[in-house]
Write a structure and sequence with these properties.
The complex is a heterodimer of chains A (291) and B (308). Chain A is mostly helical. Chain A has helices at residues 2-31, 38-55, 60-88, 97-120, 144-166, 168-178, 180-185, 190-215, 223-237, 242-262, 270-282, and strands at 134-137, 140-143. Chain B is an all-alpha fold and 308 residues long. Chain B has 15 helices and 2 strands. Chain B starts with 7 loop residues before the first helix and ends with a helix. Classes of the chains: A mainly alpha (291), B mainly alpha (308).
């Protein structure tokens, strides 16, 4: 029974990690930006969904939508208030922009975290799940919410794949990640592509945040660990490679679940960290990295 | 180097140090305590700037080096009762070894990959401290029986003297040929290597120096607080404060990092009445500095002086 339990729980966690990390890696692939306010945006989405559903009583569906909307707005704010000014700044030398974007988004993330803590306290919040109840799969009592989370994650990732590979906008995004200069030569405005990518990112991070809020609950303390886990999954998979991130998310998700069930929940994150150090040492570009 | 002693920066620093050293004669113990912590923090920030500003490496884990130094010194004193000074020396040595262990794999990777490796090191140290709670005191922290001194003035002078000596050594190093090679390898490693400089050796040296001062300062801080805990010397949030200090003060200036740290700690104290918003305000100010004065306080001041 324990095997199935680990398989099912691990799948839900991994799918959630994959969703959270996909947007993160997409932004890096297209605009070379590592957004360290990622965790803060996810938590903002979850807390907004919680506040809308539990305090304003707008219902679970509307609450979830509001959460995703807040994440979208926060993502745009991140781009226009922090990332774009740094990229456009003439006072920062080009080769140092990466470092400044890292520092800037880190500070921005702390600001979001503090605002959340100020208005909604540090207490953990669980968003009301959209589907309730428990079903038995292969002898394992599984909350319906867990299945819902896994299905939504897989659906959204599939939609993203269709968007990137089958639509004109998506192809422009893909092209921009391969050769930004080539895209501008073809007459496409790079800034518009960045805005599309940040919009996709905001929606993905928002959905991931709201689902996480329903599944495990969040507090303003989860900001740091969430950013760190997205960062490590993305590096493990290879920066900028979406399929690499998906594989890495499942590796990390199952490794954590295995450790939590077989050893102790206290050691949950340690094997994944060790694996990360090991991979960085023998293959610095990550599993499917291009560099 | 020779024109440094006649420069305006040197005189300003000298005057500031003289004024600072007379402070215990007329300010309260509370202010001294605050500045003591700020001075140790200043050394953290300066040691970080040597890596970030000169070697061009984003070290997200300054607290790994600080924490190893602090906890080694603390554990040796609390569990084995060794003398304070021996513990401080051993703490700094442990930090140098930890710096080497971290640098060897980390220097194979660049940019964000390097940043992540250092971040992971901090998370591992944090996990290690919690798992081996018998030895380290776990999440509650380790109580240390000995302190250097209980007199606020003495502690203040030790911290000020330590910061001054560290600043002199780190600043001297950054202006020396070694510092210039480091700066070159940070900006364009290929070209610096083509000029015949051994980049790996220089970066490794920078790592060792940075680790030594971080560890020493961490160990001293532990014996000032009388306790070592994850929240004060290891947590990622502490590392973020070190980074913010260095960026605020001005990267590639070394001395600016110390100014930034003192500003950050004093400002945090002034903003205490605003409660939970204090961190928000400090981060917002830091973000504005990053966006509008990327050179930081000292960078802005120095470039104005160079222009006039």
């Amino acid at each position: 029974m324990r095997v199935f339990q680990i398989l099912i729980d691990g799948f839900a966690i991994s799918a959630l990690y994959a969703l959270g990390a996909t947007g993160f890696t997409l932004i890096f692939g297209v605009s070379g930006v590592l957004n360290l306010s990622h965790g803060a945006i996810m938590v903002a989405a979850a807390v907004a969904a919680w506040a809308a559903a539990s305090v304003l009583n707008v219902g679970t569906y509307a609450g979830a939508l509001i959460g995703v909307g807040v994440a979208l707005l926060t993502a745009f704010a991140t781009y226009f208030a922090v990332v774009k000014p740094i990229q456009a700044s003439r006072r920062i030398p080009n080769e140092e922009k990466e470092i400044f974007v890292l520092t800037g988004t880190l500070l921005w993330g702390i600001m979001i975290q503090e605002v959340i803590a100020y208005f909604f306290t540090n207490n953990a919040k669980t968003v009301l799940p959209i589907v309730e109840g428990v079903v038995e799969i292969l002898g394992v009592r599984t909350p319906k919410n867990e299945i819902f989370t896994a299905i939504v994650c897989c659906l959204v990732i599939a939609l993203l794949w269709l968007l990137v590979n089958r639509t004109r906008t998506g192809k422009a995004v893909l092209a921009a990640s391969m050769n930004p200069r080539g895209v501008t030569l073809l007459g496409l405005e790079l800034t518009n592509i960045y805005i599309v990518v940040w919009a996709i990112y905001g929606i993905l991070a928002g959905i991931a945040g709201v689902l996480l809020g329903m599944f495990l609950g969040v507090s303003s303390y989860s900001v740091g660990p969430l950013t760190a886990s997205a960062f490590s999954i993305v590096v493990l998979g290879g920066l900028g490679s979406v399929s690499g991130s998906l594989i890495a998310a499942f590796v990390v998700g199952y490794l954590e679940t295995l450790t939590a069930y077989l050893v102790s929940p206290a050691y949950r994150t340690i094997p994944a960290l060790l694996l990360l150090v090991f991979v960085m040492y023998i293959r610095p570009q990550g599993l499917l990295g291009r560099r | 180097m020779s024109n440094f002693f006649t420069s305006r920066l040197f005189f300003i620093s000298l005057v500031l140090i003289v004024i600072a050293s007379t402070l215990p004669l007329y300010v309260s113990g509370y202010v001294l305590g605050l500045l003591t912590v700020a001075f140790y923090f200043g050394v953290f920030a300066m040691a970080w700037d040597l890596l970030f500003g000169f070697a061009g490496e984003v070290n997200f884990g300054p607290t790994f080096l600080i924490g190893v130094g602090a906890y080694t010194a603390g554990i040796l004193n609390a569990q084995f009762g060794w003398s304070v000074y021996l513990c401080i020396v051993l703490g700094a040595s442990a930090s140098v070894i930890a710096g080497l262990v971290l640098a060897l794999p980390a220097l194979r990777v660049r940019g964000p990959y390097f940043g992540l490796t250092t971040l992971v090191a901090v998370l591992m140290l944090q996990n290690f401290i919690v798992v081996f709670a018998d030895l380290t005191g776990g999440e509650i922290g380790l109580t240390i029986p000995d302190v250097i001194s209980i007199d606020a003035g003495t502690n203040y002078w030790i911290a000020l003297g330590f910061m001054t000596i560290s600043a002199a050594i780190l600043y001297g190093l950054s202006q020396s040929p070694i510092g210039l090679v480091l700066q070159a390898s940070g900006q364009d490693p290929v070209q610096a290597g083509a000029l015949g400089f051994n980049i790996v050796k220089h970066k490794l040296a920078a790592f060792v120096v940075s680790a030594f001062f971080s560890g020493l300062s961490g160990a001293l801080l532990v014996f000032y607080f009388g306790t070592a805990s994850v929240g004060t010397v290891v947590d990622v949030a502490v590392g973020v404060n070190v980074i913010v200090s260095a960026v605020l003060g001005g990267r590639r200036t070394v001395l600016g990092a110390a100014l930034g740290a003192i500003f950050l700690i004093v400002a945090g104290e002034f903003l205490r009445p605003t409660g939970e918003l204090a961190t928000f305000i400090v981060s917002a100010v830091a973000l504005l500095v990053v966006l509008f004065f990327p050179g930081g306080f000292l960078g802005a001041a120095l470039s104005r002086e160079a222009r006039s």
